[in-house]
Amino acid sequence: MHIETITENIKSRRSIFPPSYTDQDITIDTIKAILENANYAPTHRRTEPWRFTVMKGEGLVRLAEFLRERYKNNTAPEAFSQARYEAAGEKVLKANCVIAIHMQPHPDQVPEWEEVAAVACAVQNMWLTATAYGIGAYWSSPGFLDEIGAFLNIPMDHKCLGLFYMGYSNAGDLEAKRTPIEDKTTWLI
After folding, report:
1. Nearest Cα to 160, choosing from 81, 53, 74?
2. Strand order in the sheet with 97-103
3. Which stretches within 25-111 are classed as H helix?
4. Is residue 25 pLDDT above 90, yes or no?
5. How many CB atoms lie within 10 A of CB 83?
6. Are residues 161 and 103 in contact, defined by beta-carbon separation less than 8 angstroms?
7. Per-residue pLDDT tens for 82-130?
8. Own/partner pairs for 129-134, CB < 8 Å, 24+ apart?
9. pTM for the model
């Protein structure tokens, strides 16, 4: 394993949004490989709390319809905008795959924050793997995650933590914008 390869992959990972996605298909095998790498995230007490619901094709159409209807049902008639209604599902339909990220907590074994951290590590593994495949991705966490969880029929004891959008992209190389690590590090030596 070469540290340069790992470092380059980490530093080239970006949030790539659906408007820059192409119509190139992400194969089921590629999605499985991405999820397989998610499965190797660190997890305290080996609880492996990450759970995923994969949507492609008709699943994306149903998710887009849900998001549009949610907008319609939660917007006062005088504030309703047909353009916003359409846009509510548009980014889903521009993605080739959307993966709902949810968590099965184990409150009898570990604190919830550790489970959330484990799921975040799993998502980072997904993101890095997608980057290695040349797939753009981003993690969205809208304010109505409980409703998304209900729509997807995830178990009541699970928590929806967001949607992971993926698509091959024409965004090109994007510059990293980070402040120096020295500004964020205290040494006690």
Report:
1. 53
2. 50-55, 97-103, 159-168, 135-140
3. 28-38, 58-73, 82-94
4. yes
5. 8
6. yes
7. 999 999 999 999 999 999 999 999 999 999 999 999 999 999 999 999 9
8. 129/33, 129/34, 129/37, 129/38, 130/34, 130/166, 131/9, 131/12, 131/13, 131/14, 132/9, 133/30, 133/33, 133/34, 134/168, 134/169
9. 0.94
| pLDDT, tens digit, 9 for 90 and up, residues 137-183 | 999 999 999 999 999 999 999 999 999 999 999 988 888 889 999 99
Domains in the chain: boundaries: 25-56+96-168
CATH topology for 25-56+96-168 is NADH Oxidase (3.40.109)
Long-range Cβ pairs for the range 170-175 (8 Å, 24+)? 170/20, 170/22, 171/14, 171/16, 171/20, 171/136, 173/12, 174/14, 174/16
| φ, ψ at 169 (rounded to 5°) | -130, 155
User: Which residue shows structure tokens 């590629």?
Assistant: 30
At 181, list the tokens. Answer: 């690590």
